[in-house]
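Render medium-chain acyl-CoA ligase in 3D.
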Amino acid sequence: MADVVIRGTNDFQVPEYFNFADVIDEWAQKEKEGKRQSDHPALWWIDGAGSEVKWSYQDVAMKSKRTANVLSTAADIKPGDRVMVILPRIPEYWLIQAACLRTGGVFVIMAINIGPKELQRRILRSKPVCVVACSCDQVDNDLLDVVDQVVINTHFNDTKAVMQTYVISTREFPLDSSFFYKFI
């Protein structure tokens, strides 16, 4: 695939392997070296009340590496493992997505307005290795109860384990950085 070029360009070669996490790291390095303006954030998140979070590429690179470390150590995520995420589109949602890119985990998006029965069906069918969820005004406690119930009923069944290793969940919102790093 190294000989394939993108239409309209003369010199850009399509890499044989590509991971967007490498792009984040490259831009973070450019910020560090002063070759990129850090006043243009990599992530700029504003909630409905006007509170905002701005992260530079260096922030996203560091935080996503730490989150990937949690996924790969505490949750034992390996390439191809499914990581189900039941979160609103808060900054940590994007960190988990970048962490999945780094670990090779498959990011399984779950709608936060899904019903409990449908969530149970999707967990049982998709067999995620890890579920990341938190309760908030947008994620109902009934959904966390479903996650807990599935884990209790299947976690210790050695041959039919749906949740093979770990569930990262909390009933507190908003999440802070210690949420992801307390498991290291």
